[in-house]
Amino acid sequence: MPKQVDHPIILGIVGDSASGKTTLAAGVAQILGEDRCTVMCTDDYHAFDRSERAKLGLSALDPRANYVDILEQHLRLLRDGHAILKPLYDHARGTLERPVYLQPKDFVIAEGLLGYTTRTMRDCYDVKIYLDPIEDLRRKWKRRRDTTQRGYTSGEVEESLEKRKKDAPQFIHPQRTFADIVIRFSRPEGANGSDIHLDVRHLLRPTLPHPDFSPLFDGSNHADLRLELSRDSDGKPVDVLEIKGDISDSRAEKIENLLWDLIPEAGHLRDQVGRIDVSNGAPMSHPLALTQLLVGYHAVKASMGERAY
Amino acid sequence: MPKQVDHPIILGIVGDSASGKTTLAAGVAQILGEDRCTVMCTDDYHAFDRSERAKLGLSALDPRANYVDILEQHLRLLRDGHAILKPLYDHARGTLERPVYLQPKDFVIAEGLLGYTTRTMRDCYDVKIYLDPIEDLRRKWKRRRDTTQRGYTSGEVEESLEKRKKDAPQFIHPQRTFADIVIRFSRPEGANGSDIHLDVRHLLRPTLPHPDFSPLFDGSNHADLRLELSRDSDGKPVDVLEIKGDISDSRAEKIENLLWDLIPEAGHLRDQVGRIDVSNGAPMSHPLALTQLLVGYHAVKASMGERAY
Hints:
The structure is a homodimer.
Chain A: E1 9-15, H1 21-32, E2 37-41, H2 50-56, H3 68-79, E3 84-90, E4 95-102, E5 107-112, H4 119-122, E6 127-131, H5 135-148, H6 154-172, E7 181-186, E8 199-204, E9 225-231, E10 237-243, H7 249-262, H8 270-274, H9 286-303
Protein name (chains A, B): Phosphoribulokinase
Domain Phosphoribulokinase/uridine kinase (chains A, B): 10-184
Organism (chains A, B): Methyloligella halotolerans
């Protein structure tokens, strides 16, 4: 697809630990084409390793435990099309490793705990996403990931969840207000604990030119798909798009068609969506697939030079 | 001392392995005030560790074995007053380590094998020094350092010297032509092998406003101090300042006075010079002390906004 702007498009994905950042980043990269995406983690900018943080009594979520100025500098360099030598934090071992040479491709997906902390950082993004799953879901995801992929015991995960109870409201949650889209996954009422049919709620701030969803509604809302004008918890006017986990295939397809039709330049990418698999082999839910598509849509639009503010 | 320019002064010291870069950098930092100097090594920008280079058959001196674009970027950032996250190469172990946060002070002394390789790098410096000791002396220094400080055996040092015989002319020596001052230490004729009374020859290119040395000569050259118009090996017109190892204390003092009188703003730094010790406890030779002073003089002058080109 032709690109109309002369700098890489920077897509931010910020949220608390285990809020689904890596999954969303991978899904969006697949839609945009992995060979055209540079995915980076802003948690690599930790200034101290695990044992140093313990000694200093600093949380990894604390900006003072991160090279915030270097992250600002690197986001700016990437946006200007320059390569960076990115630091590297080993999450499994808790150590800082030799840095990695990183060149920005057409799209840079920057995901991590901190990303919208300072004005300088925020100014680097074309699209800013904040992941805000309901807390029960996030805790479940964190337990599963940290015990299976990061070598923690269940007890250690609980301890970490407890410790971060104070840090997240102080350092992570305040970034929510700067996002163009706040995405909240939740379990439908009466769900049996499976994550397959999660509902999703997109809070759409008027800081991006969102697609016109009105053709989907023929004048009225449906139970499985709703769009409503609302106020965010901070009082700001927002649109709220709700997609239920049990949305019918036909209506999900209608949303897909609408979004793809709005980015005809990216039509050849459409095949990618059908090929997305979640790692455990389960079929992907419509809310997750549509979420990835909507985020990808905004990245493509930004690359065509469309940006509201 | 007041500083008239609003960016850090970048002083480059380039030369082959064991040509005296670290010694000169430390000496100049002491003159300028260590608390006002950031000393960095451009050899930290190796892209591969020792074993990777061996596999690839690449010399550490080869620009392709170094992140040249990142070094350019970092020199520019330092010159603009920004901190960098500098990579770190462990010379003793031959490994790449976690990077180091580095803030530019009033003076940044950047020393290493590569520093003047590209135009972008060269444009970052206020003063460019190239160290070019006679080859016998350099080999002796290399043997001594690599066996005592870097854990190599004599056999390994000889092997490294042999291997680099091809690399140095290809990658290091071509940088000589870009230096404002080329400094060559050599043994006086008939010297018994001691390094205490080395002669020094400064090749002064008209790319910097050199001090007016004429008051030292009262119309004629002396055997222990000479200044002559000459042509460099590349044909360029240069001044050549020669200071003999056995220069008298009184004449050395005359040169010192001349230089200090030309930078009255730095008068309070003068005490430092008398306090310089070489690490082995031997008294510092006049040629080495005067070399450090002359380089420091140019850094101070640059900080006052004086630069010819």
